[in-house]
Write a structure and sequence with these properties.
By secondary structure, the chain is of the alpha/beta class. Helices cover about 35% and strands about 25% of the residues. An eight-stranded mixed beta sheet has the order 2-3-1-4-5-6-7-8, with helices on both faces.
């Protein structure tokens, strides 16, 4: 089903912010086409259901936004190989599932599996405020875009007004 689909597949991972990012992106992409959004149920079993049952019944789908969670070593790699994302977004690396991963570097390695599974013409969207996420751009065979508050971010939050809950984002278009 994945190989036959003409949809753009977007995988989102990170220690925090996956569901919110996926939900927001799904909403935004809904203005550009039909979206299948898969959040919280972020395992290989959920991906199989999405690909083999839900997409078949959904009709034409332009975008699939899938949240990829990690519960053990290799869980994201398995999902990523099947998802074959066109775009991979990584929110942040924190010490989640400490009993399994033990170190931030181990968590980062697990999260990187989504980026490593990108198609050659894929795009990695990385949080440049997190050095472990930004390091995923090294040796990249794909295009990379960064986001965050840092001056060197491709897309950066440059203003946030707490009282009014307004913020501004600036960035140059990229290809």
């Amino acid at each position: 089903m994945r190989a036959r689909s003409k949809a753009t597949f977007i995988g989102i991972t990170g220690s925090s912010g996956k569901s919110t990012s996926a939900s927001l992106l799904g909403h935004i992409m809904g203005a550009h086409g039909n979206v299948h959004l898969q959040v919280q149920a972020n395992t290989i079993a959920a991906l199989v259901r999405t690909l083999y049952k839900r997409l078949r019944r959904a009709g034409k789908v332009d975008y699939v936004v899938f949240e990829a969670g990690a519960s053990d070593f290799g869980t994201i790699e398995t999902v990523a190989r099947m998802l074959k994302p066109d775009l991979a977004l990584v929110t942040m690396v924190r010490l989640e599932h400490v009993g399994k991963f033990k170190t931030l570097e181990a968590v980062a390695q697990e999260k990187r599996a989504l980026v490593d599974a990108l198609k050659p013409d894929g795009i990695a969207v990385l949080n440049c405020d997190d050095p472990l996420v930004l390091a995923m751009a090294s040796g990249a065979k794909w295009r990379t875009a960064t986001f965050g508050q840092a001056e060197n971010a491709d897309y950066r939050v440059h203003r946030y007004l707490r009282k009014s809950q307004q913020f501004g984002i600036c960035g140059a278009p990229w290809r």
